[in-house]
Amino acid sequence: MLILFGEKMGMMDLPNHRSSHNRKVCKGAGIGILFAILVASLFLKIAFFLWLPALVISIASLWGGDRYKFTAKKRLFVHFCCSLCFLLFLSKPVNIVGPFCLLNIPLSIFIVGTSNFYNFMDGIDGIAGITGLVGFLLLAGYGKYIKVDANYITFCVCISASCIGFLSFNFPKARVFLGDIGSILIGFVFSCLTIFMTHSAIDFFIMAGFMFPFYVDELSTMIIRLKDKELLFKAHRRHIYQLMVNEMKAPHWIVSAGYGMFQVIVGLSLISVKSLGMAAIFSIYLISSIVFIAFSCFIRSKALRDVN
Questions:
Q1: Gap between the Cα atoms of 239 and 220, Å rounded
Q2: What proportion of the chain, given as a percentage, has pLDDT over 90?
Q3: What is the pLDDT of residues 34-87, one digit of tens each?
Q4: Alpha-carbon distance 209 to 225, whole Å?
Q5: What is the rounded CA–CA span in Å between residue 2 and residue 305?
Q6: In 3D, which of 124, 122, 119 has the Cα closest to residue 21?
Q7: Is the pLDDT reported for residue 297 higher than 80?
Q8: Which residues of 61-84 are buried (b: 16+ CB within 10 A; e: fewer)?
Q9: Local structure of 176: helix, strand or coil
Q10: Inter-residue contact 295 to 284 (CB < 8 Å)
Q11: CA separation for the pair 294, 223 (Å, rounded)
Q12: What φ, ψ does residue 146 adopt, rounded to 5°?
């Protein structure tokens, strides 16, 4: 329906200086992801304080991101309200660094950061769908390993399945985009499930690492932009995946698949060292970061040479 009527509905993504596309494409396909999450929540009896804020943040993203443009402050206000709603209704304690009440602010930042990072990293065909597919499958597998409620394991599988459905229209050549409604929603639900399924600090840092490629690309790019005194809310295309596609002319599908493979390697590595404790987990983070930063330095220097 979006493909047929997207232009009349004002749901077209028009190419600009930041885009990695040269043609207009319909956005807002994340509506399908939202529908799958709501239906799965109903049948699996998922806690209302998870799916209700997800619904609110999706509507706000559709209205204030895909259809019209809210200011960054308004968007962040909605995101923090939704994250705090989830955290305040969360009934079980989260034993990470202290009493749960002291964790509301940092965990809210984690949720809002993940939601927005996912949105920022959704810029080429397939990358958001593949990352969602892999991330929620890893959550499902790890959830089974630590004996999480079976309904939430099934819920993760359902979200992965919805990502496969989206990929059939977005990969290897995009006919539709997720839009803010989809990318922010996936990041929000992933981070909330990471917190909800956590039994210990080790669990949290393992599951958070299932989205590692998005975190390391966004954070490293932010550091470079701050160093260059750029405004962080200003549109850009300085992520590694963008440089590979735009400056180096790599096919979208190869870059997206590469990010997915890196995500699988890091995720499985984190799970495999769980029994060795937190030091081993942070060692995986360190090694993975060094590998990515070394690769990113090569890509940035090569992209700069190609431009010159």
A1: 9
A2: 65
A3: 999 999 999 999 999 999 999 999 999 887 665 667 778 888 999 999 999 998
A4: 24
A5: 40
A6: 124
A7: yes
A8: bbebbbbeebeeeebeebbeebbb
A9: strand
A10: no
A11: 15
A12: -95, 10
